[in-house]
Design brief:
The chain is mainly β and 303 residues long. The chain is 3% helix and 37% strand. The two termini are 28 Å apart.
């Protein structure tokens, strides 16, 4: 249910599916506030990295120190780098290619050897799909996915770019907000990332957007401000699996994994700048069907 001013109110609903019954029921939502947890990795230079996952992907959040690098050797599949700070300063190399980034951006890194090097202390967020098997068990919530969640469809990557794999850099702040378009959406073969419009101050509590997804998780990455994630688990035939409504208050930086088919909406409650990035793996068909919503649709074709 969307407010009439919400661009998603024009989406064509997909055929609703009943929740899959399982012994464990509908998956539990999960959240992490990175700076409240011990990092999984600390480099010799003092860079700190946390890992958190969904069913089909892993998110690596790094406070990268000046001069330090994040390296991937013989990476089998492309991955995504998110740079969210206004004054970021990183150089990304992949094979013989290199790009220097000094503003918010989404960078697609091709398979093979690559490095992300900080010019000064900065935040680097990387997204890997589950085929990058050496990282999946690094997640602090890896045990939650010891068995696949039955309501989440498996990853089936979308087509690769016609011109092949290479470094691709998309500068987020160079795209102004546009009435009728929902955020700034970018797509790869495995991911869809939506840099939602910045919310200055609290969101109007009378214009929320409770909705659900039948068969895919939503990863909500908070990079600024404070958020209330309202989550309602539908009832199944087993009362033992029912849950009270959840109203998860999280700061930044944090990640919340919202499982299907829970009803959910996110409410900015911070008094200053509130910024949320939604991540999906694989890409969403409904967003992709909207003309002009996916800003790099020419690079990454639909199936």
């Amino acid at each position: 249910m969307y407010d009439l001013d919400d661009p998603r109110s024009v989406l064509i609903p997909l055929n609703a599916a009943s929740p899959t019954q399982s012994k464990s029921g509908i998956a539990e939502p999960e959240s992490v506030e990175f700076h409240n947890e011990e990092p999984a990795d600390v480099s010799a230079a003092g860079s700190r990295t946390w890992y958190f996952r969904g069913q089909n992907f892993l998110l690596a959040y790094t406070n990268l120190r000046a001069g330090d690098s994040l390296a991937r050797e013989e990476q089998p599949y492309e991955y995504v780098v998110l740079l969210t700070e206004k004054a970021t300063n990183v150089t990304i190399t992949a094979g013989k290619e290199a790009t220097e980034v000094r503003e918010p951006a989404l960078v697609v890194v091709p398979p093979g050897n690559s490095t992300v090097t900080a010019g000064h202390d900065t935040t680097v967020i990387r997204l890997f799909d589950l085929r990058t098997v050496d990282l999946m068990n690094r997640a602090s919530n890896a045990s939650s996915y010891a068995e696949a969640h039955p309501n989440v469809s498996p990853l089936s990557p979308w087509p690769s770019p016609a011109d092949g794999s290479r470094l691709r850099t998309y500068f987020v702040d160079r795209v102004p907000a546009e009435r009728g378009r929902f955020g700034r959406i970018y797509r790869t073969s495995s991911f869809m990332v939506n840099f939602l419009d910045v919310q200055e101050g609290p969101r109007d509590p009378e214009k929320l957007s409770p909705h659900h997804h039948d068969d895919f998780e939503q990863c909500s990455l908070s990079v600024d401000g404070t958020w209330l994630h309202h989550i309602r688990t539908p009832w199944t035939s087993k009362r033992s699996q029912w849950r009270d409504d959840q109203h998860r208050l999280v700061g930044s930086p944090s990640v919340t994994i919202i499982p299907p088919p829970t009803v959910h909406t996110s409410e900015a409650v911070g008094s200053g700048t509130n910024q949320l990035i939604d991540i999906f793996c694989p890409p969403r068909e409904d967003f992709s069907a909207k003309e002009g919503w996916v800003l790099n649709a020419e690079d990454y074709p639909q199936p």
